[in-house]
User: Fold this.
Amino acid sequence: MKKIILLLFFPLLTLSQTDFYLGFGSITTFAQFKQNNDYIEKENIDFGLYYGNNLRLSNKFMTTLEVFYLNQKVVLNRYRSAKFELHQNIGFGIKPGFYSGKHSVHLSAGILGVYVFDQNGEGGQFDHFDESYYYGMDYNYDLSNKISCNLGVILSEFYSNSQYTNGELTEFAVFQFTLHYNIF
Assistant:
């Protein structure tokens, strides 16, 4: 069975090494949380790091496999010296899409490792790390053969309850502006 799976994915593995990129960009996170039965949104601006492989399947169709790190510090709730914070995401996604010339549009879906924590202000901290699924969309423009610009959004429903404040995270969205450097 392992040999069959390897034979099925071998063409993708060889293609994936021909067009991979490293990326760095600005992200804005909008997190929605529940406080006293009211839904409130918080936002911040931070950065993301990206590594991906572009798999060109035909003249108009490509799939991108991407691993990324999103650094977020969205303070969702404060109560006296305690705080509840959406802190980081590590993700893996697949982005099928169409391209024409220097333009491409991708749908995206994947899994996130979401890190949320509570601090009670007296040295105690309760960490939450769990998975979440996401979906989204990207637009990519090739500035040159080596550099491309990417605009995207990912949406995730993620529930996390604070231990030290009365906040409950329900979902978040991340808007991305990224520059990719194509290695090959």
The chain has one helix and eight strands.
